[in-house]
């Protein structure tokens, strides 16, 4: 039985993410070329761990959570402020996010699995929603080093649409498990802007997860499954080459503008 996750789908097909590049996925997951860990991975993992601990009512020590998470990437962690400074930056906003949902969490960081119509037999789709409230709201925490909303508080539409597709997959999987109150499902994207200098800022965006959105997400999953099955790992250069660890492996004519 092979598993396909939404993060795989969004790495493989532009239907799921504007940053998708099948060649990058191949370099990382098939060729297993070493990929230096990126700052956003550590920062996002810290926020996830901290908010999840508050949501579970565990009264976490934010410094200890940082030390725990960052132990996995010691070299990268050395480029960040100290554990005490990280805790000072992130603890209050993380606790405030969690407070909003106090006592209303039905699922947190739990694996869901199911399928989508048309997916080859023997392949399952898996998903890990950040959390789902007792009234069925599907929530996702997105941490970014760039701000996802403008001065008026309006979100970047392409970005929010991509996250909406991800939430639609979770809604489908919850539906298959008999845990979705109905369509359209309710989604909430909590966006944390944690740039290098200023204090983190938080904004959230409700998403109506319609059946049309779910169908679009299914199409993206099927497209990703076909790329994987046929081994069509074609490079797709774009702005994302600028932060791709494999830029030096790409042919000159593909990622020419991004060679470092
Ligand atoms: S450099 Fe660009 S085209 Fe090449 S693998 Fe990376 S993202 Fe894809």
Strand content: 15-25%
In total, the number of strands is 8
**Helix/strand/pairing category:** alpha/beta
* CATH classification class: Alpha Beta
Major β-sheet annotation: 5 strands, mixed
Count of spatially separate domains: 1
Number of helices: 9
Walk across the major sheet and give the strand order.
2-5-6-7-8
- The helix/strand series, from N terminus to C terminus, equals EHHHHHHEEEEEHEEHH
Give Rg in angstroms: 19 Å
Q: Percentage of helical residues?
A: 40-55%
By oligomeric state, this entry counts as single chain
Give the CA-based shape.
globular
Bound compounds, each kind once, are: iron/sulfur cluster
Any guess at the CATH architecture?
Answer: Alpha-Beta Complex
**Low-pLDDT residue spans:** none
**What would the CATH topology be?**
Lambda Exonuclease, Chain A
Q: Give the termini separation.
A: 40 Å
**What is the average per-residue confidence, as pLDDT, rounded to a whole number?**
92
Q: Topology of this structure?
A:
Layout: E1 2-5, H1 6-12, H2 22-29, H3 39-55, H4 62-70, H5 74-77, H6 83-99, E2 105-108, E3 112-114, E4 123-127, E5 131-133, E6 138-144, H7 157-176, E7 185-193, E8 201-209, H8 211-230, H9 252-255
Parallel strand pairs: 1-4, 6-7
Antiparallel strand pairs: 2-5, 3-4, 5-6, 7-8
Helix pairs in contact: 1-8, 3-4, 3-6, 4-6, 7-8
The chain binds iron/sulfur cluster.
Structural summary, described in words:
It is a single chain. The chain is of the alpha/beta class. The protein has a single domain, classed as Lambda Exonuclease, Chain A (Alpha-Beta Complex), CATH 3.90.320.10. About 40% of the residues lie in helices and about 15% in strands. The strands form 2 sheets. It has a 5-stranded mixed sheet with strand order 2-5-6-7-8. Strands 1-4-3 form a 3-stranded mixed sheet. β6, α7 and β7 form a beta-alpha-beta unit. The model has no long low-confidence stretch (mean pLDDT about 90). Iron/sulfur cluster binds next to α2 and α9. Iron/sulfur cluster (SF4) binds next to α2 and α9.
């Amino acid at each position: 039985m092979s598993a396909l996750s939404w993060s795989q789908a969004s790495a493989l097909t532009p239907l799921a993410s504007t940053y998708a590049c099948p060649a990058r996925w191949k370099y990382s997951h098939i060729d297993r070329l070493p990929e230096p860990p990126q700052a956003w991975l550590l920062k996002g993992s810290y926020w996830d761990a901290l908010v999840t601990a508050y949501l579970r009512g565990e009264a976490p020590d934010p410094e200890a959570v940082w030390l725990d998470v960052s132990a996995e990437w010691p070299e990268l962690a050395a480029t960040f402020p100290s554990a005490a400074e990280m805790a000072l930056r992130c603890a209050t906003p993380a606790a405030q996010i969690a407070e909003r949902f106090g006592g209303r969490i039905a699922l947190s960081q739990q694996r869901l699995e199911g399928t989508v119509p048309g997916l080859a037999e023997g392949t399952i789709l898996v998903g890990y929603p950040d959390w789902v409230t007792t009234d069925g709201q599907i929530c996702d925490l997105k941490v970014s080093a760039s701000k996802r909303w403008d001065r008026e508080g309006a979100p970047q539409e392409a970005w929010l649409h991509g996250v909406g597709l991800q939430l639609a997959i979770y809604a489908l999987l919850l539906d298959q498990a008999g845990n979705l109150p109905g369509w359209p499902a309710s989604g909430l994207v909590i966006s944390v802007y944690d740039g290098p200098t200023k204090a983190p800022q938080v904004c959230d965006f409700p998403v109506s997860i319609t059946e049309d959105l779910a169908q679009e997400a299914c199409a993206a999953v099927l497209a990703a499954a076909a790329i994987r099955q046929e081994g069509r790992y074609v490079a797709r250069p774009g702005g994302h080459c600028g932060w791709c660890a494999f830029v030096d492996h790409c042919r000159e004519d593909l990622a020419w503008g991004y060679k470092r």
